[in-house]
Amino acid sequence: FRDSGPAASGAWIERTRIVIGAGGRYEHFEINASPADYSRVELDVTLEQGAHFEFGAVTIGHGQARQEFVTRVAHLHPDATSNQVVRAVQGGGSTGNYLGRIEVARGAQRTDAAQNFRAILLDRGASANAKPELEIFADDVKCAHGAAIGQLDPAAAFYMAARGIAPDAARALLVQAFIADALAAMGDDEARGGLLDAALAALGERK
Questions:
Q1: What's the CA gap between 81 and 91, in Å, rounded?
Q2: Residue 47: which residues within 8 A CB-CB, separation 6 or more?
Q3: 3-class SS at 80?
């Protein structure tokens, strides 16, 4: 959970390089709720044969904050897999960005790689951007990416209101489910719950 940096100004960038050995598995889950003007988390991941990379991340922004996740995932050997799920919840005039690059080397057959980005814009001035990149030199691969940016689902809000749930409570439940989607692959229920609680607290503090 990243909630560091100056309260109203400044910037910070964090870079991490990861090599996942043959048959290994690495999971990375992170919430970027920094109030800094600009915050950026970069992951450079290399997978060896049969390795797996699991990434779940959320940006939570208010004010004029700009938050980014940047990933480069290099499949250099056969039978490796990766899955990236990124969610953005942006309010005020904030911006949430996801730049994800997948590279599949010529000999990395049977690669299975996926990226999925979705954003909820809570206010008119908020924005979100996704830039997926695929560089594929093998022919026996599965690579997919998807992106969707919008507001809270009005049909879902209406459904909940029709059953007596107050608008503020309905909105909170919808946002909670949206954030939880990025953390669904966490195997530790307690850790997942703690991270979700921290994210919701940060969201509530910055309304």
A1: 34
A2: 20, 53, 73, 74, 75, 76, 77, 80, 82
A3: coil
Beta strands in the chain (DSSP E): 11-20, 25-32, 38-47, 52-61, 66-75, 81-90, 95-104, 111-121, 127-136, 141-150
Sequence-ordered list of residues with C-beta below 8 angstroms from that of 18, at least 6 positions apart, any chain: 26, 28, 43, 44, 45, 46, 53
Q: Give the residue among 143, 62, 137 at the shortest CA–CA distance from 100.
A: 143
User: How does residue 207 score in pLDDT terms, banded at 50, 70 and 90?
Assistant: very low
Q: Which amino acid is at 50?
A: G
User: Among residues 63, 149, 139, which one has the least CA distance to residue 107?
Assistant: 139
Rounded to two decimals, what is the model's pTM?
A: 0.88
Residue 118: name the closest of 103, 130, 131 by CA.
130
Residues contacting 87, CB < 8 A, separation 6+: 57, 58, 59, 117, 118, 119, 120, 178, 179, 181, 182
Q: Are 199 and 60 in contact (CB under 8 A)?
A: yes
Residues 96, 46: Cα–Cα separation, whole Å: 25
Helices of type H across the chain:
154-161, 167-183, 189-205
Residue closest to 34 by CA, chosen among 85, 100, 96: 96
Backbone φ and ψ of 101, nearest 5°: -120, 130
pLDDT given at position 142: 94
Whole-number pLDDT of residue 6: 44
pLDDT, average across residues 96-106? 96
